[in-house]
Amino acid sequence: MLKRCLSVSLLLGLSLWTAQALEVKIDESPENNQKCAGMYSRSAWGGPVDPFILAVFPNTTIEGVEDPIVSLIIFEWKDYDLIGVYPQPDSAMKAICDPDAVKKGFCEESHVGEWLLAPNATEKSGNVILTQAVHLNSAQPINYPIIKTGYYCVAVSGYSAPEFTGVIEFREAYGELPATQIPKLPFYGGSGASSTINTDMISVLLVMVAILNAFRNSFSFFLLLIVCMGYGVVKPSLGRTMVWVRWLAIAHFVFGLAYAITSLLVSPETANPFLLLVVLPLAATLTAFYVWTLNSLNFTLKDLRERKQTVKEAMYKKLWWCILISILVIFAFSFFNSFTFASASDPDYVPFHWKSRWFVFDGWLNLVYFADVAWIAYVWRPTANNRRFAMSDEIAQDENGEFEFADIGAPDDSDDEAQIGVKTRSTNSQPENSASAAQQGQASQPTRAPPKQESPRDSFDRETIFAVGEDGDKFSDDEGDEEATKLVGGRR
Q: 330 and 232, same structural domain?
């Protein structure tokens, strides 16, 4: 037991002395007897060194075992079928070379303790398959160079060593970052620079990022919903509906925060069905936002169409298409991911999807969000029409292109119009003899200023409308008679 503790201490010291790459523990237990990781070639991402896999086993002795041997194999996942032999077509696979395998001709005596490979495995494999019997009494580091990009695995089996411990280092050409995380290298570079300044706030910063991410999503859906309801553009207030919208946004924030914190605590590999208790409430509030947003947008479009607000209607139509395309993209990716995760138990799942893991978990949703924000910002940019009709209504037009003005008069305007018409008709319907008598009376009297005419009808702003013969013209009756005489003479 003491020797085992010393071995572990030696491995930890070796890890501290060397560069901290992706280092994993490997031993005889079922959960640690095989370790796999994606590896990029040097030409894929570049780097100062050639990538490699390093297997280190400390020198140790085991009581009761003269020569403890550990069977080690390093291979690319596509060559998995080339490992082991089948004595009979229906028999179990034999994986390790032992005296019985030597007798049957599956391997040579010098290869006892190594993994068995299929005939012509060297020609059939696309990469080097390294198999070796590690003698723990005199173990040396084993270096496996990476020539091609792939998903590489290290498997061990205790041939004559009941207990053992080792360290496997997956060293990339560009640095210490695991291959699955290389697309996030710029982000990790900034995070690493900040962590050198303050190493005690990493956990707090992760929680803050989770809170801000949940707030961003909730606030974005909240703004989108009230805009689709026409708030600030079509109607000045939403009334009591705003209260329900706020409660929905708060619920979405709480469930989103719980989901974000759970994602930090639970890795995708250890996920279990209990996570549905966190995912389902978030999915419910998200669905409520989408359904309510689309219904509100349809009602707003209908209202703008009836009021013939073409400019605002065009803006909301573009927003409708943006939301519809986003929903289709999300459903398509969700449908695709559901089929992908259904095969997560397949041994080939991780080897063939490790490169796209970052995009599935972190990439595509953020890209959809960015595209939506960019499109909405472009549609709602301050153009001439947007500034013109932001706080006012567009003048409606009929199908013939004629403007439709609403009645802007006061409620009693019709009565005034009727009274003015009655007065005018009654004045014009006086008998002709009365008019002639008035003219004779005027002729016998001295010349005097004409009587003051009734002022024309004023508008609401006290401005004269359709004024003919204003007081400033000062036409006399004699000038009117002379003008009439000239007109009659001209016609003759």
A: yes
